[in-house]
Design a protein that fits this description.
By secondary structure, this protein is mainly alpha-helical. The protein has one domain. The chain is built from 18 helices and four strands. The protein has a two-stranded antiparallel sheet. The two termini are 25 Å apart.
Length: 564
Amino acid sequence: MNTELMGIILIFLLSALLAWPLGKYMVKVFKGEKVWTDFLSPFERFIFKMAGVNPDKEMDWKQNLKALLGINMLFFVVAIILLMIQGSHPFWNPNGFGNWDPTLAFNTAVSFTTNTNLQHYSGESGASYFTQLIVFCWLQFVSAATGIAACALLFKGLLNKQSSNLGNFYNLFLKTCTRILLPLAIVLSLALSFNGTVSNFEGLQQVTTLEGDTQLVAGGPAAPMVSIKQLGTNGGGFFGPNSTHPFENPNYSTNILENIAILLIPMALVFAFGFYLKRKKIAGLFFGVMSLLFVSFVAISVYQEMHGNPAIHQMGIANAQANLEGKEVRFGPAASSLWGVSTTATSNGSVNSMHDSHTAISGGIFLLDMFINAVYGGVGVGFINFFVFVIIAVFIAGQMIGRTPDFLGKKIEAKEIKIAAIVAILHPLLILAGTGLTSYLIVQNSDLAWLNNPSFHGFSEMLYENTSAAANNGSGFEGLGDNTSLWNILTGIIMLLGRFLPILGPLAIVGALAVKKPVPITAGSLKAESPAFGAVLISVILIIAALAFFPALALGPLAEYFTL
């Protein structure tokens, strides 16, 4: 047990230590300063020229948002067409997979465009190598770059002194792909390949099992996709079982590398905020708030998994303490808990164990992570979501001390608060409306085949699916049969709204703040780096989550826990 706990501490510390210099480097890329990847400039200029884009043109928040939405719409259209004609072209399809069902193609194209990677399919049995690399792997780069570029726009707006210009989305987007994501993905892909992660272009291979039977085993170029799925908080696996599959995650060393990759860029962006605005103390406070929540969630989940399921104890099974049902013996329950919290805290969605098999409280923790959706969060959008909580906390703190709230020298007024409130309400609205609809349908029609578990756990499965879609996470309680027209269309709509509206709101806020005249700092000004503000911020995060989601948690994970 001590060894497993040491592994958790090592992963967290290495992630934070590597995130610090990465945050510095990312700021230099965002600001156009000299970096070692400047040799890519001719290639980038060629791309801009071919696309007819002027990367030096300054744009306000509306122009940048238009560019963001436009390019992502193009990505979606290309992706859905390629999925629907997969079997009609001869490229990289050694297993002869056919065209996709329209609703599944819609769901998957939305999923990968929105950085969700909710997978209602199994890659090794339904996606050609062309689809895996040219559609999915490509979208994992550009969707991650979209979130990071949006976060850089927010940084620029907070730094502005009465200027509406936030920079150029296209410039930030391409440089994020070429100078941040691509170098990191190459390094991680090589490290995974050397440690046994599969990377080939062979079709199904016939192998002889230990029992002497023959079986067809799928391989493929998994290592490149695994590297970007983790670094970009995408989470979409090459194989259906994701990182529980030994071809994606062969051993404890690759498990450490992949878990660090999940946390690395989300952590780095918190530090990048401090370096960009020269407010390292505030960034340290934000990182501390996120880390306190993260470590608390990990501790609760590890405790629950190490002590096992009471129902297993009642069966008289001697090794109930191990609680390995649904988990890989290569990693154990503690590493599975860390990954479960990491993947839901960062909107990553990859798994190294089956979340459906974790204890009820652990499942509730994973849900709470996605309810908050800002504990580190997905690349870029995690900090953007956290910014919404900051604005609300600043407003509440301002009311407590009896002065007009301000943040970083800019007054927070009614317009900004209204937008922040709408964004904060949107997330539970999507989750609870989706869960309410699917719960109603299953009650009205018990013949629906997609719910395999009854009672409280069945409710948790539907709640988890809608939450995962709204939080752009992509993990699932896999007792749910989700590849149906209903789930494909419903979660597709939720993913779209859950991705782009929370980007629109904060950019509108920062666009309004950017043009405001700075207010002088006085003795009565709110010190955002103070422990008192940190306490208010944590309280706001937890209270909003509790008010919105406690009834749903009570009907699902909590009810299941108390009935065991």
